[in-house]
Specification:
Length: 415
């Protein structure tokens, strides 16, 4: 694998180490320190998430017109500064400043996110592109798992404000690391933009840039891409149940203790870090649409198992741990096409735009998952029906993936 892709994976790992020192504990700060009620916490989290969705696509449009490496560094540096501002908001216990800072941080992260995906796509195609995204995901999850583990201890010793200040410092270290070692992508060398490049000062001119509205129109006319956008949005509604509905269900309905729940969440990270490479290598050469359907099938198996365990009261603890492993393997599978297929679909000069659009639609699916999960839990107390209802978006998602597969070139759809 290319050295720069490894460096990017390490850099994102450092960034996520810092981010996870405080992000999982934000709701606790809002509740225990600022006295915000649960309903308002949900509204704040959903509102911040909704605000940042269009900026993911905007970031994709921007990264197609400027230097990928510089945008990655600008995004990380800005995130470090914003995180420092959040630490100050925590220190003075200001809800308004904390929410405003979190919103700005979400926007910055969304704007910069497509640059990393486009950077990876610039270096590799085919199977090597798939492996490049795999290493990035491993770095992301390794950093997050380590950060969550350290964050709980850190909050206990230095408080919320101290933990966030440490997070800002760690993200700044990640920024400095990439600034010192990460090289430009091949596309940056060929076509340096407004922000410049440390590479060749006088490259041959490339094709003319499209205007933003031309890029939006181009994506809008790509019917296969739109079909896949909808399919991945539906898949995100199902996969997103892991974040909120899953822990609520296993604790409140299966009776799993908080300590065992924490072990299960840690197991999820371990399966990603140590299993993603093996899963990726096992599907190299297969079609991305088939891989996505396989991942969704594993989610269905895990969710049905949870529903049956709750309905019959059958070894819930064992089912819980097995379900974590099964759905994480499903996550490992579906992440492969989510990360790689947008770059394969895109015209060469629109890779950032396509990645930004798929990122935004995935975020929208996640927010819908949170709302749908809460609605289903409030509407029915039957454990099996909970998961049957939450799995319904799988059906149109699979239909769309199969239909798109028939219209995709094999070279585009091949992992």
């Amino acid at each position: 694998m290319n050295r720069n892709l490894r460096l990017l994976g390490i850099g994102v790992g450092i960034r996520m180490l810092g981010n996870a020192l405080y992000a999982p504990f934000l709701a606790l700060f809002l509740s225990n320190v600022l006295g915000v009620n649960y309903l308002d916490i949900g509204a704040i989290i959903a509102g911040v998430g909704l605000l940042q969705l269009p900026f993911n696509y905007l970031g994709g449009l921007v990264t197609d017109r400027f230097d990928r490496r510089r945008l990655i560094l600008l995004g990380l540096g800005a995130e470090a500064v914003v995180t420092g501002g959040l630490a100050y908001a925590f220190a003075i216990e200001s809800l308004t400043f904390a929410v405003a800072t979190a919103a700005v941080g979400g926007i910055v992260t969304s704007l910069a996110a497509p640059a990393s995906a486009a950077y990876i796509a610039d270096f590799a195609e085919g199977a090597e592109r798939t492996r490049g995204f795999t290493f990035y995901r491993i770095g992301f999850n390794a950093g997050y798992s380590a950060g969550v583990t350290l964050g709980g201890v850190l909050v206990s010793f230095v408080g919320f404000a101290g933990a966030v200040a440490m997070a800002a410092a760690v993200i700044a270290v990640g920024t400095a690391f990439l600034a010192g070692f990460l090289g430009p992508s091949p596309r940056d060398v060929e076509r340096p933009r407004t922000f410049g490049s440390r590479a060749s000062p006088a490259p041959e001119p490339g094709p003319p840039r499209r205007r933003f509205r031309e890029s939006v129109a181009l994506l809008g006319r790509d019917r296969v891409a739109i079909e896949l956008l909808v399919a991945f949005a539906l898949a995100a509604v199902v996969a997103g149940q892991w974040a909120v509905t899953f822990p609520l269900y296993v604790h409140n309905i299966l009776g799993i203790s908080y300590s065992l729940l924490g072990v299960g969440l840690a197991l999820n990270g371990l399966v990603v870090v140590f299993g993603q490479t093996a899963v990726t290598e096992s599907v190299i050469g297969r079609r991305h649409t088939t891989i996505a359907i396989g991942g969704l099938a594993l989610y269905a198996v895990a969710f049905l198992g949870l529903g049956l365990a709750g309905w019959f009261g059958f070894v819930p603890t064992l089912v819980f741990f097995v379900a974590v492993v099964v759905l994480t393997i499903g996550e490992n599978l579906i992440t492969i096409p989510q990360a790689t297929l947008p770059s394969n679909l895109a015209p060469k000069e629109e890779i950032g735009s396509y990645n930004g659009a798929f990122g935004a639609i995935g975020g929208g699916g996640f927010l819908l998952a949170v709302l749908l999960g809460g609605a289903v839990l409030s509407l029915t107390v039957n454990p099996l029906w909970v998961w049957v209802l939450l799995m319904l978006p799988l059906v149109p998602a699979v239909v769309l993936f199969r239909h798109a597969a028939a219209r995709l070139a094999v070279s585009v759809d091949r992992a």
